[in-house]
């Protein structure tokens, strides 16, 4: 029971209500003691007035008056004259004197607790003001035993009443909390369990119904999270299906390209000057396409393979990329520029960096073509003490906001209509494999610029691996 929220709330409610009753019980007992003593003073005064009315009171009547008043003797001061009105033998000396005229609350509480925890039957003197202005002072002597017994009886009644009130209050609070909090929380838990059993099923999404503001906000936040997670799971499923389809297409494409490579090898010996000039580029393109198909098949099984690092003449690699894109452009009014030192050597995987640059230059070319206006693509490379830099810039229209928000995310960062958004994601992953990074340096109406940063430090390369 104590492990459940409702059980703990019930126990805590009973404890706190009982604590409140205890805090009420102590002043109540003190008040009862004060009333008890004041009542004894009033009875003693009445007995004294009876004696004053008739001086010839017998000893038997005097004893009866004292017994009815519950005291041993009575002293009544009238007109500055102190006189013993009624008296009887006192069984033991007086232990304490209490003045009921000027008692503060802490003093009354302390005196009441003293009587409760003192098992001895003592004789005490009590002083107070006579009622109805019947004199200046009245004092009596009495036993603490009957007082203690009356206080015990009163305290027992208060405790029983407190227990009943506590149980009733705890039950009402428990039912109220169960209706207002525990049932909605249990509903949220059932909704979470139902959603966990079938997260792809949109029917399992929670419907906010709580009337309590905080619970309503929790239900709405849970629904938002469930909606986003369901969308992510569906996207993951679609990506898995697409990955399988891409793997099958890559397998068949690899076979087709292998056959094309055999045919190209046969016509490589042609005497046609144009064929001789274009055939090496065609063979290299087919080889790269076969390598890409094989890499795609490997990507479907695991991550991109780690780069095979070697010294690469970056000028030749960039020139090959630009020549391929220039041939693809044809007669379109797009110019290409290079700013690369002839002897600059970069430690990298040539095939992977070629794929990265091809993706960036191809995206730049497609962006310019989409505008229908002339444009320019420029590739620059340089080095400093810590890294090699390669920059690809264009004079296109810039990236749209959605593409910039999901720039390197597969199937979300597509720039051109009909694009998959895979190019930049693959390029960024390949550069990260070199321990570097691919950054968008600038994008606006004047154009876009991407920068590749490749570290020279061996430690960075080893960390990337």
TrEMBL record:
Histidine kinase domain span: 248-458
Gene3D superfamilies named among the record's database cross-references: 1.10.287.130, Histidine kinase-like ATPase, C-terminal domain
GO molecular function per UniProt: ATP binding; phosphorelay sensor kinase activity
Domain of life: Bacteria
Catalysed reaction, written as an equation: ATP + protein L-histidine = ADP + protein N-phospho-L-histidine
PROSITE patterns recorded: HIS_KIN
PANTHER family in UniProt: PEROXIDE STRESS-ACTIVATED HISTIDINE KINASE MAK3, SENSOR HISTIDINE KINASE
Record's protein name: histidine kinase
Organism per entry: Pseudoroseicyclus tamaricis
High-level lineage: Bacteria, Pseudomonadati, Pseudomonadota, Alphaproteobacteria, Rhodobacterales
């Amino acid at each position: 029971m104590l492990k459940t929220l409702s059980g703990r709330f019930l126990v805590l409610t009973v404890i706190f209500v009982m604590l409140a009753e205890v805090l009420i019980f102590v002043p109540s007992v003190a008040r009862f003691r004060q009333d008890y003593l004041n009542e004894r003073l009033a009875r003693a005064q009445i007995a004294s007035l009876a004696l004053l009315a008739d001086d010839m009171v017998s000893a038997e009547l005097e004893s009866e008056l004292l017994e009815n008043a519950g005291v041993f003797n009575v002293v009544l001061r009238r007109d500055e004259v102190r006189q013993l009105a009624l008296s009887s033998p006192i069984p033991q000396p007086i232990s304490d004197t209490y003045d009921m005229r000027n008692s503060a609350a802490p003093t009354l509480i302390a005196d009441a607790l003293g009587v409760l925890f003192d098992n001895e039957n003592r004789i005490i003197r009590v002083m107070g003001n006579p009622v109805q202005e019947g004199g200046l002072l009245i004092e009596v002597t009495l036993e603490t035993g009957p007082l203690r017994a009356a206080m015990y009886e009163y305290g027992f009644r208060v405790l029983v009443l407190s227990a009943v009130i506590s149980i009733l209050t705890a039950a009402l609070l428990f039912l109220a909390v169960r209706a207002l909090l525990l049932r909605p929380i249990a509903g949220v838990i059932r909704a979470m369990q139902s959603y966990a059993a079938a997260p792809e099923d949109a029917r399992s999404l929670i419907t906010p119904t709580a009337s309590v503001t905080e619970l309503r906000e929790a239900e709405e936040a849970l629904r938002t999270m469930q909606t986003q997670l369901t969308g992510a799971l569906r996207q993951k499923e679609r990506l898995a299906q697409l990955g399988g389809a891409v793997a099958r297409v890559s397998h068949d494409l690899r076979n087709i390209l292998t056959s094309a490579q055999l045919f190209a090898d046969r016509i490589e010996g042609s005497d046609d000057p144009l064929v001789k000039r274009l055939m090496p580029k065609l063979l290299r393109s087919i080889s790269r396409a076969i390598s890409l198909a094989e890499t795609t098949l490997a990507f479907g099984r695991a991550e991109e393979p780690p780069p095979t690092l070697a010294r690469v003449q970056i000028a030749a690699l960039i020139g090959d990329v630009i020549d391929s894109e220039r041939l693809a452009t044809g007669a379109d009014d797009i110019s290409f520029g290079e700013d690369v030192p002839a002897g600059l050597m970069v430690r990298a995987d040539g095939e992977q960096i070629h794929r990265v640059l091809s993706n960036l230059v191809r995206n730049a070319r497609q962006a310019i073509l989409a505008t229908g206006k002339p444009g320019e693509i420029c590739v620059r490379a340089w080095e400093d003490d810590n890294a090699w830099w390669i920059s690809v810039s264009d004079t296109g229209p810039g990236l749209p906001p959605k593409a910039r928000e999901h720039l390197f995310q597969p199937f979300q960062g597509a720039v051109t209509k009909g694009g998959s958004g895979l190019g930049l994601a693959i390029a960024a992953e390949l550069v990260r494999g070199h321990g570097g990074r691919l950054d968008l340096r600038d994008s606006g109406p004047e154009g876009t610029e991407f920068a590749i940063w490749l570290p020279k430090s061996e430690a960075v390369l080893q960390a990337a691996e």
